[in-house]
Specification:
This protein is mainly α and 293 residues long. It has 17 helices and no strands. α5 packs across α7, α8 crosses α15 and α10 packs across α13.
Length: 293
Amino acid sequence: MNTPTTTIPTFDQIVRKIQFDEIVKQVQDLPSLPAVVMELLNSIDQEDIDISVLAQKVTLDQALTAKTLRFANSSLYGTPTKATTIQQAITILGVQSVRNLITAAAMTGCFPKGKINFFDFKAFWRHSIATATCANILAKHLRKNQDFAFTAGLLHDIGRLVLVTRFPEHYEGALAYRAQHDCYLIDAERAVLDIDHVVAGHALASHWNFSDVLQKAIAGHHEPEKMPDDSLTAIVHVADAITHALDLSATDDDLVPPVCMIAWKKLGMDEKVCKHVFKQTIEQFEGINRLLA
C-alpha cells in the first residue's frame, strides 16, 4: 500500500493576501505626526517662515531640540561658534536643513521596531537617508526645490514600514519569497501579499495629508513613466536607483532596480553629471546619516 505524500505549503501559501481596506484601516490607526512636522511639510514651498515661531515650536520637543543642536554643532558644518538655542541652530543650518531634520526625526519615531527581528530597520533608514541626500543633490543640479526632493526621497519607501510593522507575518513571508526567488522586493510583495509598499505608502501619505506633490512622488517612484511631466517623481526614481547602485544601505542582497530612461533623460544624466552626483552623494551621506539615523 502506497503512503500518500504530503506537500508542505510554502510560507507565501500560508499567508493570506492583504486587502486594500486593511491597509487603510491600519494606516488610520497609526499616530498622527506632530503638529510642527505637518506645518513644515505643508509649507515647503514657502520662503517666509518666521524663524522665531519655528524655534519656539521645536523647543517644545526635547528630543528634537537635542538632535537639532547636535546637528548644528557637528563637524559637517564646521561653524566657529556653537549653537546653544534652537534659533541659533536655525540661523546656522537654515530652515531647509532644520525642516529635513525634523521630518527625519519624526518619521523614525513613528514606527517602533517592537519584536520585529527579521527586518533590518537600520538598512532601511540608511537607504532612505541616502536617497534623500541624492535627491537633494539632483534637485540642486536641476534648480528644483531641494526641500521637496529631500523629503520625497526620505519618504519614498515609507509604505514598507507600514507593511512590516502592521502586517509582520505577511512581510516576513515576502522577505522569504524574495530570498527564495532572488527577485526585487516589490515583486515579492506583490506575489505574496497581492499589494506593495507603493500602495501602502500612498495610503499613508494621503492619511497624513501630505501635499499632492509628495503623494505623487511616493506613488510613482517605481513607475515615473506614468508621470512624465513630474520632475520630483523622476528625481526620486533616479536617486533610489543610484543609492542602490552605490550600496549605501550596506546590505548583501541589494539589487539595483531598473531605471526608466524617460526619467534618466529628463534629469540630463550624462557621464559628467553622473560622476558629480555619485561623488557628492557618497561624500554627504555618511555625515548626514550619523546625525539623522
